[in-house]
């Protein structure tokens, strides 16, 4: 099983509970996407199902550990969100199917363990269906809910689960982990800064050219401030972005938002893009206009959830933020 990056104290606490037989019947692992919640949960599953655990830690060599690592253990069940054209969610049918499995006697172990990954993505029917199971859980079943937005879960679910919070990773931890995977040191440094505490996000940014995307976002703002972003430039960029995924454009918007935030609050808040501050200090955007540009970016983030044409969205966004900057 892969090694967890960071969260040493959190994992030690969880494994102590496993060793003492005090692991709760329902627990929420809360934290940003990509910080390691899923891997931590799988390590806990392995420890709970292991034939020869050592202080709550899985031995890694028994049949149960091998089956958990291969995600084929008969007493280990995972519920994940299903993707549609516009969104991802967990439906009531998935929860009902899980409930049927959870109610069965364990096959290889003394218990069953269920992971619900992206628990905040349950629709209301699914969430209420799960609530009934958590209120009266099968005695031999443990539930681990993973969420990037604990507040989005039903209050009644939150109140019946212990919560374990996973903090963001430090840039140095992300950098070192990237380097061990063969990423160039300079690239690892850049990605660790813009990953916002998430190793999973750093990997996605590496694969999608995240550092280049951030450079494009900064270059766009610099051109706007120098009055060099023409209509022709906007239409050309819009045409290029028409081939992007909606997630990639969302990442681009996020880079612009964070750069704007750094420009406005660099003197009072820790910057997201500390390595870019020499360039950001040269960009002068009045506070009122900065807020309006950030507000505009938030609106376009929401519009991405619709079926609106991506090229038209991109062109409209650039027109809007350019207009905000240059109007009186």
Layout of helices and strands:
Blueprint: H1 8-19, E1 26-30, H2 37-49, H3 63-69, E2 76-80, E3 82-83, E4 88-89, H4 92-102, E5 112-117, H5 124-135, E6 141-147, H6 155-159, E7 162-165, H7 171-180, H8 185-194, H9 199-208, H10 210-225, H11 231-241, H12 246-265, H13 277-280, H14 287-303, H15 310-326
Parallel strand pairs: 1-6, 1-7, 2-5, 5-6
Antiparallel strand pairs: 3-4
Helix pairs in contact: 1-2, 2-3, 4-5, 7-8, 8-9, 10-12, 11-15, 12-14, 14-15
Which properties best describe this structure?
328 residues; alpha/beta; Rossmann fold; Zinc Finger, Delta Prime, domain 3; two-stranded antiparallel sheet; 15 helices; 7 strands
Description:
The protein has 328 residues and is of the alpha/beta class. It folds into 3 domains: 158 residues, P-loop containing nucleotide triphosphate hydrolases (Rossmann fold), CATH 3.40.50; 38 residues; 118 residues, Zinc Finger, Delta Prime, domain 3 (Up-down Bundle). Helices cover 53% and strands 9% of the residues. It contains 15 helices and 7 strands. The strands form 2 sheets. The protein has a 5-stranded parallel beta sheet with strand order 2-5-6-1-7, sandwiched between helices. A two-stranded antiparallel sheet has the order 3-4. Helix 5 links the parallel strand 5 and strand 6. The longest helix is centred in the last third of the chain and has 20 residues. The chain starts with 7 loop residues before the first helix and ends with a helix. The relative contact order is 0.10. The mean pLDDT is 90.
């Amino acid at each position: 099983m892969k090694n967890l990056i960071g969260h040493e104290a959190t994992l030690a606490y969880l494994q102590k509970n496993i060793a003492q037989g005090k692991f709760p019947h329902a627990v929420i692992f809360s934290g940003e996407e990509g910080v390691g919640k899923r891997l931590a949960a799988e390590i806990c599953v392995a420890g709970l199902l292991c034939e020869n655990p050592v202080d709550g830690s899985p031995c890694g060599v028994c049949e149960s550990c091998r089956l958990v690592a291969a995600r084929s253990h008969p007493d280990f069940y995972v519920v994940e969100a299903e993707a549609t054209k516009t969104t991802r969610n967990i439906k009531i049918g998935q929860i009902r199917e899980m409930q049927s499995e959870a109610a069965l006697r364990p096959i290889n172990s003394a218990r069953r363990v269920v992971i619900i990954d992206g628990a905040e993505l349950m629709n209301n029917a699914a969430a209420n269906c799960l609530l009934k199971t958590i209120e009266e859980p099968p005695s031999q079943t443990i539930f681990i809910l993973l969420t990037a937005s604990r507040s989005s879960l039903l209050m009644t679910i939150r109140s019946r689960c212990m919560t374990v919070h996973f903090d963001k990773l430090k840039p140095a931890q992300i950098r070192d982990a990237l380097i061990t995977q063969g990423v160039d040191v300079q690239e690892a440094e850049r990605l660790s800064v813009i990953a916002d505490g998430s190793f999973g996000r750093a990997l996605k940014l590496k694969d999608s050219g995240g550092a280049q995307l951030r450079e494009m976002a900064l270059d766009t703002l610099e051109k706007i401030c120098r009055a060099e972003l023409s209509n022709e430039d906007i239409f050309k960029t819009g045409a290029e972005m028409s081939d992007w995924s909606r997630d990639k454009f969302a990442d681009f918007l996020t880079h612009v938002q964070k750069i704007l935030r750094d420009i406005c609050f660099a003197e009072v808040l820790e910057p997201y893009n500390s390595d870019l501050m020499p360039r950001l200090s040269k960009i002068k955007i009045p506070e009122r206009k900065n807020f309006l540009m950030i507000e505009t970016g938030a609106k376009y983030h929401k519009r991405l959830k619709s079926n609106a044409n991506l090229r038209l969205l991109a062109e409209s966004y650039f027109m809007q933020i350019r207009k905000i900057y240059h109007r009186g």
